[in-house]
Amino acid sequence: MRPSRRFDPLWMLGPTLVLLVVFFFVPLLQAAKSSLYEWDLLTPPRYVGLDNYRALIDSGELGHALSTTLIMSAVVVVGSMALGLGLALALNRPTRFAGFVRSAVFSAYVVSWVSVALLWLWVLDADAGALTALCRALHLPTTHWLGNPKTALYALSGVTIWKIAGYSMVLFLAGLQDIPRSLYEAASLDGAGAWQRFVNVTWPLLRPTAAFVGTTSLIISFQVFDVVRVMTQGGPVRSTSVFVYAIYEQVFLNLRVGRASALVVVFFVLLLGLTALQLWAWRKKGAA
Amino acid sequence: MSGRETRTLRSPLTDGVVNVLLGLVAAVWLLPYLWMLSTSFKTLPEIVRAPTAPLPSGLDLGAYRAVLESMPLARYFWNTTVMALGIAFTQIAVALPAGYALAKLKFAGRGVAFGLVVATLLIPAQVRFVPVFALLAEVGWVNTMTALILPFGVSAFGTFLIRQALMSVPDSLIEAARMDGASELRIIYGLLGPMLRPTLVSFFLFSFVYHWNDYFWPLVMTTDDAVRTLPLGIALLREQGTGVRWHIVMAGNVLLSAPALAVFAFAQRHLLRAVASKA
Amino acid sequence: MSFSRRAFLALAATGCAASTAPPGRKTAPLWFTYGGKNRQVLEGLVKTFNLSQGEHWITPIYQGDYFEGLAKLRTAIAARRAPALSHVVGEVVPYLAQADVLEPLDDYPGARQLDIVPALGQAGSWIGGAERRLVALPFNRSTPIAYLNGKLFAEKNLAAPKTWDELRAVARAFTHDGRHGFGCPIDWWFWAALVGQAGGDVVEPDGRVSLGGEAGERALDFWKTLVLDDKSMKPPPGRDYNAWEQTNQDFLGARVAMIWTSTAFLKYLEENAPFPVVAAPLPAERRRAVPTGGTHWIMLRAAPAEQKPTAWAFLRFMHETANAITWATRTGYMPVTRAAIAQLEAEGYYQKHPNDRVALDQLGVARPWPWSPDLFRVQREIVQPRLEGAVLGGKGTRQSLDEARALATRWR
Q: What percent of chain A is predicted at pLDDT more than 90?
C-alpha cells in the first residue's frame, strides 16, 4: 500500500530509528572507538592505539575469556537443545500430567536469573546443599561444586541449562505439532520403526525450529552474567570469567573502560561470527 | 495434535515407565523451589543442624521479617514494576506504527529500516552499556527511571511480531478505514491495535516479565535505593563475611520469584504464545 | 538547638534506621559495605547520631561488599551522583586522591584535634601520609590475626606458633581425620603479611613494584608447602569475600583448628563458636610484620555542598570516645582514637577481653602502604589472580611473580 501521506513512514519509524541509533548503533561504534583509549571514567581518556588489545592478549585474559565462554556456550547450547528436544518428544502427549510437567519445566524460564542463581547457590552448597546430600546418599563422590576450578564452569552451565531447557522444549513442541500426522502414518505403514520415523520424518521437519533454537540459545548463552556474578564472581581462579563478566569487571572493578571496550568489540565480532556460522550450518543441511 | 508415537508402541507398561520418568523430570524442576520455600521458613539453628530436612519444624517468619527490615522492599517492588510497565508500554507504543509501516507501506528504504531493526538483535545490552552509561552520565540521567526505560524503548522482537501479525491483515480493511476519513494515527492505534490484542497481550507479558527480572542493566545504571530494582536488592542479601544466612536469602528469593511465577500461573498461555512464535 | 523529648520518642518509635529524615534536617547519604553483624552495629550508630541531635540526618545505604561498593562509588562519581560520605579500603585511597575526587578534610572544624591513633590514621597508614592533605579518616581498621580453637589446642597442649616453622608443625599436628590444621584465604592481604614477615615489601617506598623480591617468593612458597606438600592448610574456595566467609565457617565448624583472618570477625567468631576462641598475633620469620586493613572514611568532592557539613558532623560523632568504643567493642575492629583506648584500658576491658588486645598490640609491627596510585591495580589485576593460580593451580612461584612484576612495570 502507498502511504497516505509521503512523510508518514518518517514519523512511524522515527521513534524506533532514533532510539536504535542512539542506544544501539552509536554505542557500538563508540565502544569500538573507546577500545583505542585508556579511560577510567574519572579522568580524561588517553589515546593508546591497539595497546588494550595487546595487553589483553599478553595477559591471557582474552584467550581465557574466549575459552571459558566458548566452552560454556557449547555445553549450554548442546545440553539445552538435546534436553529440550528430549522433553518435547516425551511430553508431546495430551495428558494433564504431561501438561503439568511441561509447566514445571518452563517455570524455570520465567523467573529471574538472580532467582535461579540464589536458589542453586544454596542447592550446590558444598556442605549443606541438597546436591551434596543426594550424592552422599547415593555414595557418589562429591566436591565443592562451585569452588573447584575444574567443576565450577560446568556447574554454572548446568544451572543455565536447567533454566533454559524449558524454552527449547516449548519451541520444539510447537515444531513437533506442526508435523502432519499423515507423514508418520505413511512411514509406519512402510514399516519404519520409531527411530527411523524420527530420523526420516521428525528431524528433517524440525530443522528450521532447531536452527532457531540453536541460534537463540547461543545468544542467550553468550549473555550469561547474572549467575556468574551472583554465584562465583568469575572465580575460582577465574575459571568462570566469561566474556560478559570480564567486561563488567574491567569497567567497574578495574576501572579500565578502554580494555572493557576492546573485550566488547571482540565479543561482538565473535557473536556475529558464531551466529552466522550457526545459521549457515543449519541452512546448508537443507530444509525440507 | 499430531506427531506422536503410533498406537502400536504404547502399552500400559511403557506408559507407566514414561510417567515415572516424567515424574522425575518434574521433580528436578520443582523440588529446588520447594526446598527454597521450606528453607525460608526455618530458623538459623535449624539450618545449621539439618539443612536438607524437607519440611521446616514450624512456619517461622523470622527470615521474612529480616528481609523486610533490611531493605525498602516495597520501594524496590514499586520501582521494578514501574520500570517493567514503562518499558513494555513504550515498546508497544513505538512498535505499532513501526510494524505497520514495515508491514503495509511501500516506501524507499523499507528494507534497510527492517534490516536495521533485526540487526539490533545481535547487539546485546552488554555491548552497549558503557557508552550508554557515559551518555546518560553526561546528561545526569544515571540512577533515574529514564535510564532504565528509555534504552529499551525499542524491541526488535516486538516490532517483528507486530509486523508479522499485520501482514496477515487484509489491505482492504485499511483502505476502507482511510476512505472513511480515519487518519493513519487513528488506524494504527484505534483499529489495528485492538485487532492485534492477543499478540500485544502476549508480547506485553513477555516483555514485562523479562524486564522485571532484569539484573544487569539496573546493576549498571543505578547507584542507590532511589530506583534500585528488586533483583538487585535480593541479590544483595548474600552478605559475605559473617556467615550466609540462608533462610533470609531464600525468603528474599521467594519474594523475588513469586511475582513472575504468579504471572506465569495466570497467563501461561499468553507467555507461551509469545515465546513460541518463531522467526 | 533544642530537641524535645517527644520528638525524640516519636522518631525512636519509627524503628527503621533508614527511615526518611524528618523535615527541617540537613541530610547526607552514607554508602556502606557491610553485611551481617557489623552492619547492624553501624546502623545502630547512625540511628543514635540521627536521634541525638536535631540538625543533621544521615541516610545509610547498603551497597554490597567492598568491591561492589567501590564499583558503585566510582560509577556514581563518574555519573556526578556521588554520595557525601563513604568508606574505602586503604589500597585505593591514593588513586582516588590523585584523581582528585576526595574532599580534603584538614580545614573542617575540629579536624586537627581528632586525636587519632597514628598507626591507624592517614599519617601512619601510608608512607608520607602525614605530609599530604588529609583525605581519609580511619573507620574500621584491622590487622590480620590468628584465631585458635581453644579446645583443640588445650587438648594437645600446644601454644600459638611464633615462627613459620612452629606454624608448620602445629598445622601438621592438627591435620588428621578430615580436619586441617590451618586455614587462610588465598588473599593479597595475607600474602602481604607473609612478605613482610619474610623481610620484604610489596611495593618499595619509591613506588617500584618489587612484590617483595625474594621474600615474596618465600611467602608464596610457604603457602604452597602448607597446601600442596603438607596438606595441612585447607584452601578455601570462592573468590574475594567468599573465601573469607568459608574460612570463618570452617573454623566455626571445627574443620580447621587455626585460621588467619581479620580482627574484624572477632566478635562474630567468639559469639558463634561452640568452643573458646583464642586470638594470637601472627608469627615471625625474619621479623614480625602485618599490613593494616579495613577501610577509611572519605568524603567526595563531587557531592552537593550542602551535604558535606552533615557528613562531617557524623565523622566527628564517630570519633567521639563513646562511639569509637561502641564500634570497636561490638565488632572487633580497633578503636581509632587514643582517648578511646585509654578509657578501655582504664576500665579493665582488655583484662576481660584479651583477644581484643591482640590486633592493637600488633600495630607496633604494622607496615604502612606506599602512597602509590597504582597499588589497587597491582593488587587486583596483577597479584591476586596469580596467587590463586600458584597455590590452587600449582603454577611455578618464581614464574608467577616474575610475570606479575613484568606486567606491573609495563604501565605508565
A: 37
User: Quick one: B54 and B137 in the same domain?
Assistant: no
Residues B46 and B161 in one domain: no
How far is residue A235's CA from residue C355's CA, in Å, rounded to a whole number? 33
Q: Which residues contact A134 (CB under 8 A, 6 or more apart)?
A: none
CB C223 within 8 A of CB C194: yes
Start-to-end CA distance of chain B, whole Å, equals 22
CA-angle at A60, arms to A58 and A65, nearest 5°: 135
Here the CATH number for the domain that contains residue B158 is 1.10.3720.10
Asked if A40 lies within 8 A of C99 by C-beta distance, the reply is yes
Assigned C-alpha cell, A246: 570480564
Residues B218 and B132 in one domain: yes
Domain enclosing residue B94, as ranges: 72-236
- Helix (H) and strand (E) counts in chain B: 15, 0
Q: What residue in A sits closest to C384 (Cα-Cα)?
A: A237
Is residue B169 located within the same domain as residue B229?
A: yes
The residues spanned by each domain of chain A are 53-284
Interface with A, mutate which of B24, B25, B228 (most A CBs under 10 A): B25
C143 versus C204: which is more confidently predicted? C143
In a domain, B268, yes or no: no
DSSP-derived pairing of the beta strands C366-367 and C290-291: parallel
Compute CA distances A143 → A147, A151, A274, whole Å. Answer: 8, 8, 33
In a domain, B258, yes or no: no
Q: Average pLDDT for consecutive 10-residue bins of chain B (279 residues)?
A: 46 79 90 89 82 82 88 92 95 93 87 88 85 87 91 92 89 87 86 89 90 92 88 82 77 90 83 66
pLDDT beneath 50, residues of chain A: 286-288
Question: Taking CB atoms and an 8 Å limit, are B123 and A24 in contact across chains?
Answer: yes
Cα–Cα dist C131/C36, whole Å: 37
Q: Residue A147: what pLDDT? A: 76
Distance from CA of C91 to the nearest CA of B (A): 20
Mean pLDDT of C292-309: 92
- Distance CA(B108)–CA(C53), nearest Å, equals 69
* Cβ–Cβ below 8 Å for A93 and B4: yes
Same domain, residue pair B54 and B167? no
**Contact at 8 Å (CB) between A162 and A146?**
no
Is B274 inside any structural domain?
no
> CA angle, corner C385, sides to C379 and C387, nearest 5?
90
Domains of chain C: 5-141+293-358 (3.40.190.10), 144-291+374-409 (3.40.190.10)
Global ipTM: 0.85
**What are the φ and ψ backbone dihedral angles of C32, each rounded to 5 degrees?**
-125, 160
Q: How many residues does chain A have?
A: 288
Tally helices (H) and strands (E) across chain C: 19, 14
- CATH fold for the domain made of A53-284: MetI-like fold (1.10.3720)
Tens of pLDDT along A185-200?
888 888 777 788 888 8
Please tell me whether the peptide bond between C370 and the residue prior to it is cis, using omega within 30 degrees of 0: no
For residue B250, tell me if it sits in a domain: no
Q: In angstroms, what separates the C-alpha of A83 from chain C's closest C-alpha?
A: 29
CA-to-CA separations, A257 to A110, A250, B219, C89, in angstroms, rounded: 33, 7, 17, 22
Q: How many structural domains are present in chain B?
A: 2
